[in-house]
C-alpha cells in the first residue's frame, strides 16, 4: 500500500514538485522572518548583554529601556556604594555623537564611557589592541562593524584618527561588540573622556553598574538598592527583558514581522492545499479503484497522510536548508551580522508546516471518502 501511495504521488512530476515548492517557500519565509525578528529584538539589549561584569544596573526611576537616558548626579554613585552587599559600583555613560573621518565621511556614533580606573563596561572580546590602551589621552576603541561603516574599503587597523563632536580622537583598538539595534558605530572610551565628547552641562552619569558580593542574591540586592536610594535597580536579565518589552510594545516591529510570517503561512497553505486538492481530483479514479477492491477509508487516509508527510519532509528540509544558507552567506554583512537560525525557530516552523499539511490533507481527503467505487467503470 505504501508503494502504491508513493507511485500515485510521483506520477505527476509537475504537481509533485509544486507541492514541495509550496512547503519549501512557506518554510523559508516563516523561518527567515522569525529569525530576523528575534535577532532584531536581541539587538535592543545588546549593550546590556556586552557588559559581562555587572550584575545590576541602576538608573533613574523613569527609565524604561537602555536607550532612554536620564542622567544621575554623581552623589548617587556614593549612595549606591554604601548599600550593604555591593562589592563594587562604577559609573557608565551612554550618549550619541557625530564622527567625521579625515576624508570627510560623517556618521552618528554611540558613545559608551567605561570606568576610568577599572575599565569595567567593555565587551568581552578585543580583535586589535588592548583595553588598557584606553588610558592613553583622547583614545577610543571602536566595534568592527563601526569601523567598516566609516572605512568601508579598508581592512581593520588601529591608529586612525577621527573627530567626534569636533574633538580629535585616536582609535587604539577594535572590539567585537554585539550589533546595536540602530546600525551606528559603537565607540568605547573612558568615562571622563565620554563626558567631554558629549559637550553637555550638568549631570552626565547614565547608569551605575553594580557587582553583588558572592553571598548576596542579585534580585535581593537590587531591591535593597531601590529601598535605600529610591533609584531604579534592575538585574541584568530584568533590564534586558525590560528593553526588549519596550520595543515590543512601542514599535511596529512585531506587527510587521507578524504579518509577513502570517502571509508565509497563508500562502504556503493556499499553494499546498490547492495543489494537493487538484492532485487528489486528477487521481480520483485510482482511489476509486482502490475502494473497489476493498481498501477502506482508513487505509486511504493513511495513504494520503503518507503522501503529505513525504512532501512536507522534503519541502521543510529544503526550506530550512535555504534559510540556514542565507544566514551563512550574510554572516559577514554588518547589517545582518548576528542573525542566526535557532533551534526554537526550526521547531516552531516544523509545527507550522505540520499544520499546513494537516489542513491540506483534510481538505482534500473529503472528496475521496465520498467517491463511488463504480467511477472506475464509467467512461
UniProtKB/TrEMBL annotation:
UniProt keyword Transport present: yes
Keyword Cell membrane among record annotations: yes
Protein name: ABC transporter permease
Lineage: Bacteria, Pseudomonadati, Pseudomonadota, Gammaproteobacteria, Candidatus Berkiellales
All residue ranges annotated as the MacB-like periplasmic core domain in the record: 17-227
Location relative to the cell: Cell membrane
Cellular component, GO annotation: plasma membrane
Main location: membrane
Alphabetized InterPro entries for the sequence: ABC-4/HrtB_transporter, ABC3_permease_C, MacB_PCD
Location of the ABC3 transporter permease C-terminal domain: 260-373
PANTHER family: ABC TRANSPORTER, MEMBRANE PROTEIN (PTHR43738), HEMIN TRANSPORT SYSTEM PERMEASE PROTEIN HRTB-RELATED (PTHR43738:SF1)
Keywords: Cell membrane, Membrane, Transmembrane, Transmembrane helix, Transport
Transmembrane segments: 16-41, 257-280, 300-327, 347-369
Amino acid at each position: 500500500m505504501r508503494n502504491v501511495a508513493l507511485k500515485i504521488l510521483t506520477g505527476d512530476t509537475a504537481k509533485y514538485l509544486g507541492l514541495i515548492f509550496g512547503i519549501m517557500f512557506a518554510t523559508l519565509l516563516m523561518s527567515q522572518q522569525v529569525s530576523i525578528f528575534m535577532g532584531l529584538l536581541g539587538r535592543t539589549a545588546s549593550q546590556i548583554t556586552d557588559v559581562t561584569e555587572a550584575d545590576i544596573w541602576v538608573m533613574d526611576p523613569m527609565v524604561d529601556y537602555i536607550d532612554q537616558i536620564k542622567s544621575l548626579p554623581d552623589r548617587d554613585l556614593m549612595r549606591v556604594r554604601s548599600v550593604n552587599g555591593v562589592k563594587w559600583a562604577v559609573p557608565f555613560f551612554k550618549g550619541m555623537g557625530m564622527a567625521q573621518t579625515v576624508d570627510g565621511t560623517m556618521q552618528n556614533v554611540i558613545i559608551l564611557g567605561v570606568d576610568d580606573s577599572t575599565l569595567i563596561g567593555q565587551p568581552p572580546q578585543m580583535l586589535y589592541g588592548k583595553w588598557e590602551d584606553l588610558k592613553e589621552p583622547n583614545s577610543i576603541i571602536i566595534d568592527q562593524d563601526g569601523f567598516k561603516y566609516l572605512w568601508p574599503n579598508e581592512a581593520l587597523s588601529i591608529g586612525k584618527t577621527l573627530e567626534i563632536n569636533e574633538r580629535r580622537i585616536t582609535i587604539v583598538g577594535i572590539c567585537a561588540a554585539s550589533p546595536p539595534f540602530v546600525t551606528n558605530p559603537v565607540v568605547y572610551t573612558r568615562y571622563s573622556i565620554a563626558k567631554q565628547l558629549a559637550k553637555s552641562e550638568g549631570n552626565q552619569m547614565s547608569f551605575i553598574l553594580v557587582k553583588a558580593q558572592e553571598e548576596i542574591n542579585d534580585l535581593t540586592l537590587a531591591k535593597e538598592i531601590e529601598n535605600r536610594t529610591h533609584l531604579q535597580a534592575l538585574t541584568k536579565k530584568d533590564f534586558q527583558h525590560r528593553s526588549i518589552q519596550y520595543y515590543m510594545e512601542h514599535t511596529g516591529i512585531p506587527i510587521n514581522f507578524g504579518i509577513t510570517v502570517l502571509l508565509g503561512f497563508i500562502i504556503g497553505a493556499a499553494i499546498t492545499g490547492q495543489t494537493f486538492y487538484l492532485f487528489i481530483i486528477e487521481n480520483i479514479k485510482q482511489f476509486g479503484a482502490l475502494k473497489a477492491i476493498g481498501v477502506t477509508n482508513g487505509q486511504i487516509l493513511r495513504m494520503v497522510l503518507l503522501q503529505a508527510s513525504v512532501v512536507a519532509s522534503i519541502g521543510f528540509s529544503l526550506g530550512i536548508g535555504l534559510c540556514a544558507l542565507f544566514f551563512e552567506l550574510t554572516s559577514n554583512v554588518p547589517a545582518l551580522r548576528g542573525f542566526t537560525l535557532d533551534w526554537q525557530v526550526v521547531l516552531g516552523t516544523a509545527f507550522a508546516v505540520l499544520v499546513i499539511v494537516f489542513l491540506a490533507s483534510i481538505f482534500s481527503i473529503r472528496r475521496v471518502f465520498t467517491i463511488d467505487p463504480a467511477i472506475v467503470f464509467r467512461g
